[in-house]
Amino acid sequence: MKKSSLLLLLLFLSLVVVTGCEKQETIESDGEEINVTKMEHKHCTRAATATGAEVKLNYDIYYTGDILNVLKSEEQVISSSPDVLTTYEDAYKKIQKNYEGLQYYDTNVVRGDTSVTNTIVINYDKVDIDTLIDIEGEEDNIFENKKPMVNKWLTLAKKFGTECEIVDDKENSEE
Question: Second label for 96, Cα 20 to 30 Å away, from 62, 107, 116, 127?
Answer without folding.
Answer: 62
